[in-house]
Structure to design on (114 residues):
């Protein structure tokens, strides 16, 4: 179960909540059957709480949203993708610490807008 500030992204809301969002968004591409995905869940929830109201943080189930996983070239999970103004600016694979992910979010926030 996701945290209270962790969003659930899917093919119906991805365009609006991630691609069209002006600013930075962190998307955790994951699956229910993936032990490392479950292990990073609390880290994602903590980041969602830390960045609540500022940077959307959420999860996208690759099994339920195969088109999006394919579109972004997700070959292994967990895959943590940082978007800024709808563009991929950073992609990390595997379990990552909260500090590493927070730094990736902060780095994306400083990307100049074009």
């Amino acid at each position: 179960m996701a945290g209270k500030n962790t969003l659930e992204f899917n093919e119906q809301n991805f365009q609006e909540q991630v691609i069209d969002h002006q600013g930075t968004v962190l998307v955790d591409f994951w699956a229910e059957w993936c032990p490392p995905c479950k292990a990073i869940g609390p880290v994602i929830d903590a980041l969602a709480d830390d960045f609540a109201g500022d940077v959307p943080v959420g999860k996208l189930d690759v099994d339920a949203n195969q088109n999006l996983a394919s579109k972004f070239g997700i070959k292994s999970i967990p895959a943590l993708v940082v978007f800024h103004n709808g563009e991929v600016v950073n992609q990390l694979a595997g379990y990552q610490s909260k500090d590493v992910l927070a730094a990736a979010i902060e780095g994306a926030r400083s990307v100049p807008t074009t």
